[in-house]
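Q: I have 96 residues here and want to know how they pack in 3D. Can you give me a structure?
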Amino acid sequence: MSFRFYTNAVSRASKSVAAGIFITGLLLIGFGFLIYVLKEIFAILAAIVFSVTGAGCLITAIKIFLAQRKLSKLGPDDLQSYRENVHIHIEEHHDT
């Protein structure tokens, strides 16, 4: 007489996990084969992605430099006009 320490639910779960891992393995092998066969297309796509990302970084850096330059040119009087609609409210709580 054999004893089973697991139920059918565990058996089904392990089968579905194994099936998922198997399908993932097949997909990875397929993508690897496609990349091996179509090297030039994937190299061009990677180059496009890196170029667009680099251009975005450059544009963002230029915007930050220009904003910093504009802020550094402001004098003490200009800072007040820059903060025209800013009001600081301090609430004092006295527990007496």
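Q: Anything worth noting?
A: The mean pLDDT is 81. The longest helix spans residues 39-73.
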